[in-house]
Structure formats: structure tokens, C-alpha cells
Amino acid sequence: MPLPYVRIDGEPFIADLMYARSDNMTGRAVYQELHWGNLAVVHQDVWQLLKRAAPLLKKMHLKLKICDAYRLPAAHDMMKKLIPMNGFFAEEAEKSQHCLGTAVDVCLCNENGEELLYPTKVDAYDARLRKKVLAGDAEEFMAHLAKARHSFYEEGYEEKIKNREFLRDFMVNAGFEPLEHEWWHYNLPGGKGAKYPLVQLNPADFSE
């Protein structure tokens, strides 16, 4: 029986997983180290929602960058060890919809693949703050993380907030649920339970 998981590839999607690179808050290319690489994989129920949204993206001359999708349980455990602080990652892999293949981290890009501006980078990434976090000082980063909330408003951020709200409307209309404290994170409604177990996928099943 074929696995109910699909690799996201091709227009109007851009697969660019942040944890396949080192410029993320862990400072490590975790997915590369675990031989997963830049594979953007989701449960087929997530793929159906994304497919439904694809024609509208093309009509608007926009692309959707997939910054995270399915996450290996081993990757989740490794990330928790790298940053063992509350508020960064789910306490257990079982509680992360990324590890179930039912969540995506995304942002909209123009037709040239350039990210639109948002109140923070995806995952609230900041190279300066990353150094402080990895040194055990997360206070400034946690304050910075407040800008990632959908409720964040501040003068001077008008264009970035407009883009955040446009992304939210787009993803909600496609059928996803937003996560209030992370503007980039969207869940499949009901994406936990027996139908969506914690899975250990094999990258060979999705390689070209």
C-alpha cells in the first residue's frame, strides 16, 4: 500500500526547508545531518489543500515557500537538545504536527521567488539573537518572538503586517488553521489522532 505522504515539488511551490540549512535558530543543518535533506513532505490531506490553493497563487503571480513540513522525530529530538528551552519546540515529537506530517511553515514570495516582508523572518530567525540563545540567554529572543504573533501591531510595520494578514487569509481560505503565536505556521484541522500517527519516513521513498 502506498504511503499517504506526498513530496511538495514544482510550481507554484518552493521547497526551501530552514532546517536543511544552518541559518536557523539551532545553527545546524539538522535535516542534512540526519540525511533527510531538503525534502518537503506532507500527509496527502495537507497536499490536497495546497493543490486547491495552487491556481490562485498562479493567478496572483505569487509562490508559496515551504520552510518546514514533515519533521523526522529524530530531528525534533535533536533540535530540543540544541535549544532545551520552553517555547521553541513542542515538548515531545508526538505533540508536534510537523512530526505527523500535518503542519507547514510557509511564506509568500513574488514570482521571482523573493520573500514578501513580514514582521519577523520565518521562525523569527535572527543571526545575532541565535548566538545569544545558543549561549543560554533567550530573554531578548523571547521578546522578539512577540512580533511573530498574529495580534502584533506596531507603527512602522504596516506593509509587513498587511503581508502577514494576506498570508493568513490565503491559508485559512485554503482550509488551514493558523497558530496564533507563529504567523508562518499552519496546521491541518484535526491533524492529530489515529489517522495521523507519529511516523518515521524514509527519504529514499521520496527522492527523485
Write a short abstract of this structure.
With 208 residues, the protein is α+β, with helices and mostly antiparallel strands.
Number of helices: 6
Distance from first to last alpha carbon:
20 Å
Oligomer: single chain
Helix proportion range? 25-40%
- How does the overall form come out from the CA principal axes? globular
Largest sheet: 5 strands, mixed
Task: Briefly note the structural class of the backbone.
Answer: alpha+beta
Strand arrangement within the widest β-sheet reads 2-4-5-7-6
Summarize the helix and strand pattern as letters: EEHEHEHEHHHEE
Number of strands: 7
Strand content: 15-25%
Radius of gyration: 16 Å
Task: Walk me through this protein's architecture.
- This protein has 208 residues and is of the alpha+beta class.
- Helices cover 29% and strands 16% of the residues.
- The chain has helices at 30-33, 44-59, 73-82, 127-134, 139-144, 158-174, and strands at 5-7, 13-15, 41-43, 62-68, 103-110, 177-179, 182-187.
- It has a five-stranded mixed sheet with strand order 2-4-5-7-6, with helices on one face. Strands 1-3 form a two-stranded antiparallel sheet.
- Strand 6 and strand 7 form a beta hairpin.
- Helix 2 (44-59) crosses helix 6 (158-174).
- The longest helix has 17 residues, at 158-174.
- The chain is globular.
- It starts with a strand and ends in a 21-residue tail after the last strand.
